[in-house]
Amino acid sequence: MTKYESSVKKIYTPVGNVYAKLSDLTNLRVIQERLADPSFEQLVRQQAGDKLNDDQLRQLRDVVAKMQFDQDSVTAEAGPMGTVSLRIIEREEPKLVKFQTENSPVQANLWIQLLPASDVQCAMKVTLGADLNFFLKQMLKGKLQDGVERLADMLAMLPY
Question: Global pTM?
Fold first, then answer.
């Protein structure tokens, strides 16, 4: 299994609040609402710099608008692959939420690790572990690393 790790992100919220939000995926519906807000779109553009063009942002907005959330999973349309889900398989309050893919051609796990930095701040790191053959690993490694980093950035920007 190949691992891709984000840099450590600071979140200016107590670790318990962040864990409560991320361990119940219905709380992530706010992403759908925020992507419809033009001021948030501008923030996303600033964070992404030249890595996100208008077409990519439109595609992101379309994918996120169609996502379905319940307490333990998030499901999205993945083009020719069909519907792919991430399901929570482990919770360790207040420091870990672990996910596993379902209906995906690639077996993968995603960990969100949280550590308290103070009473009002915590640190977060996102790790993706994917079972990739040699060719996929070479083809996707930069994109997966960038995707993990962007996911961590997005999670760090959520209102907690």
Answer: 0.81
Outline where DSSP puts E strands in the chain: 2-5, 9-11, 68-69, 73-77, 83-92, 96-102, 108-118, 121-130
What's the token pair of residue 4? 């891709």
Query: Quick check: 88 and 98 in contact, CB under 8 A?
Result: yes
Assigned token pair, 105: 């051609």
Tell me the domains of the chain and their CATH numbers.
2-157 (3.30.530.20)
pLDDT tens for 90-148 read: 999 999 999 999 988 889 999 999 999 999 999 999 999 999 888 888 888 788 899 89
Strand pairing partners for 73?
A: 87
Backbone angles phi, psi at 95, to 5 degrees: -115, -10
Q: How far apart are CA 160 and CA 151, in angstroms?
A: 16
Q: What is the pLDDT of residues 49-62, one digit of tens each?
A: 666 777 877 777 77
Residue among 154, 2, 6, 11 at smallest CA distance from 94: 11
CA separation for the pair 117, 156 (Å, rounded) = 14
